[in-house]
Amino acid sequence: MSRSPTDSAAAHVVVVGAGITGLLTAIACARAGHRVTVLERGPLPNPDATSHDQHRAIRTLLPGDPDGTARRIAAHRHWEELETLLGTPLYRRVGVLTAHPADRLDDLLAEADQAGVPVDLPDGRDLPPLGLPPGTVGVRERTGGVLLADRVLRAAVRWLTARPGVALRPHSTVRSVFTGSGRIVLDGGEVLRGDLALLAGGPWTRRLAAAPVTLYRQTMLYLGRPPGGDRWDGAPTAGGLGREGRGWVLPPGAGTLLKLSSDTVCRPVADTDSTGEDQRPHLERLAAEGVLPDLERYPVAGVRVCHYTADAATGGPLLAPVTPGLWTRAACGGSGFSTAPLVAERITEAVKEAA
């Protein structure tokens, strides 16, 4: 049972950044009975946020990493619960097909079985043309699929707006954070302090608290359906594609376009200003990867440039306490979106520990 936000044991949690991590953390803390203030430098939801997109992949099986698989399974359960809580479909269960070395297939299937992740080997004739690298086979996780990212953000904002004890403050830019005291200073000079604060402002968090992270820029291509029979209806998300096995395709459906991306065009940068950057070399590199072997058939619907931060040592997400009352989150691309419920859970635990 959740506590009332007026309960004397309730804490005050300040969340900086209203992307997926910030919003889900606010929901988790509010459900636990805490007062929550969410500060966002733009509107709610913010179209400039790293989390703002049509869709993001969700999968559970991480070969060779049973602990990571267990965490992804837990995140998957959280997403199912969030669909019920927020009262709207958030998740297209179309499965996730990933290219794996054919000579390791038996080991992979055994690992999936041990983890309780249902998988199958779909007939390629039922799928759209995908650029699986030579020597690989496509293994589909039947419980994976696509999170409808923009829909998730809107639903979270609606839920929080109606929740007692939650203050959503758009257009509230944080000027500085005093890491020793946890005090947060806004551009207008207002000073806030909670019992615990989470800095989850995406790439912009770097200037508020020192963290060992690297800033990356990514170029993604959005496509319409090709003419004729395209076999994209009900098609899975697909990864491990292209010459280097680093490409992803997110299928169209539920009002979304087809999205094409690859880590090969992800590059470290010094800042988030991409104004004037020529995207053609990155798009040419993306096309040359062969993620979709018949790419020329697809009409281009849009190009997007986004930024994210990752742990400088591991290249993955980073969640770390600066002090017991101040945490920072560096979210890493799509995995940062799908695992955001786990961050929300950890911050809720940290509030309890601090109390």
What topology does this entry show?
Elements: E1 12-16, H1 20-31, E2 35-39, E3 56-58, H2 66-86, E4 91-92, E5 96-101, H3 105-115, E6 119-120, E7 136-141, E8 145-147, H4 149-161, E9 166-169, E10 174-178, E11 183-186, E12 191-192, E13 196-199, E14 213-223, E15 237-241, E16 247-250, E17 258-262, E18 267-268, H5 280-288, E19 300-311, E20 318-323, E21 326-330, H6 333-338, H7 340-354
Helix pairs in contact: 1-4, 1-7
> Can you give the helix content as a percent range?
10-25%
Rounded radius of gyration (Å): 21 Å
Molecular shape: globular
Which second-level CATH architecture applies? 3-Layer(bba) Sandwich
Low-confidence stretches: none
What is the domain tally? 1
Question: What is the CATH superfamily?
Answer: FAD/NAD(P)-binding domain
Largest sheet: 9 strands, mixed
SSE class = alpha+beta
- H-E order: EHEEHEEHEEEHEEEEEEEEEEHEEEHH
Assembly category? single chain
Distance from N terminus to C terminus (CA atoms, Å) equals: 18 Å
Number of DSSP strand runs: 21
Which CATH first-tier class would you pick? Alpha Beta
Beta content: 25-35%
Separate helix tally: 7
Mean pLDDT figure: 91
| CATH fold label | FAD/NAD(P)-binding domain
Describe the structure.
This protein is an alpha+beta fold. The protein has a single domain, classed as 3-Layer(bba) Sandwich (FAD/NAD(P)-binding domain). 25% of the residues lie in helices and 28% in strands. It is built from 7 helices and 21 strands. Strands 5, 6, 7, 14, 15, 16, 17, 18 and 19 form a 9-stranded mixed β-sheet that branches. Helix 1 runs parallel beside helix 4 and helix 1 crosses helix 7. This is Putative oxidoreductase. It holds the Pfam family DAO. Keywords: FAD, Flavoprotein, Oxidoreductase. Its cofactor is FAD. One of its GO terms (molecular function) is sarcosine oxidase activity.
